[in-house]
Amino acid sequence: MADMPGDFWSGWIMVLTLVSAAVVGWLIWSVYFSPTPHEPEEELNEPVWDGDMREGNAPAPMWWFWLILGATVFSVGYLMLYPGLGSFSGMLNWSQDARVSNAYEHYQNQFQPVREEILATSLDDLQSSSGRMNTASRLFARECAACHGRDASGQLSMFPDLTDQEWQWGATAEQVEQTLRSGRRASMPAWSGVVEESQLEPLVDYVMAMDGSDSDQMPGRAVYMTYCVACHGAQGEGNVLFGAPSLRDDDWLYGGDRASVLASITAGRTGVMPAFNDRLNDAQIRLLVAWLTREQ
Q: Residues 245, 164: contact at Cβ < 8 Å?
């Protein structure tokens, strides 16, 4: 039935509407205008209650008639002006699609000058405008706070802190904008079964001690240089092109304790930042970039 053409259903809707109108018309006529036979009172064999209470044949009150007639006139006028008879669009040519489209076009025209002003304003000037930053803050609360927290400090050992400069994919305005527009998909492979069991503990020791002066002498360095250097760099400095974080600071998204680091190495980690290019317009993305890259 879902494959039936629109003209088929329009025809049935028109038939149903006309039949309903005919039924209402017949009901009004039968109640108020059809002839009622009158029989002599002595020929009536109707039961009588309480001495003088008899079943009668009184007509319906006239206010019912005027109410139904008013509703009928209204319905006929509505069907003439608005769509209701199949494919007939009505004299006003009104439709929900056209109303939504007109409202959207009005909205776009109303705020287009504001968007153009935002796009033409430098990030420094946007960041110095309390009004623009308040707008950006509300935008962040609506679009981003569910994952990164209302204060953008991250949460749940899954979503990164956005209030520092340790950005996995880069903290420049251009890199942040690309992250917002296109999204990111990070993947830390699971090394369990690739790295020998006996090498996992030395690798964890080395990764956790990379910022120390004598870490180069640790046995886990050889394992690191074999499996990890391609993404995280020879000194653990990370690589924003791959989304590989630095291992030389205390900013650990999934936890910096020994058990968490071991779990990251053995089981791997995956993270997805959704793309907002189709959800937010250029002005909204620029406001978010200005808000996220401002000095904390």
A: no
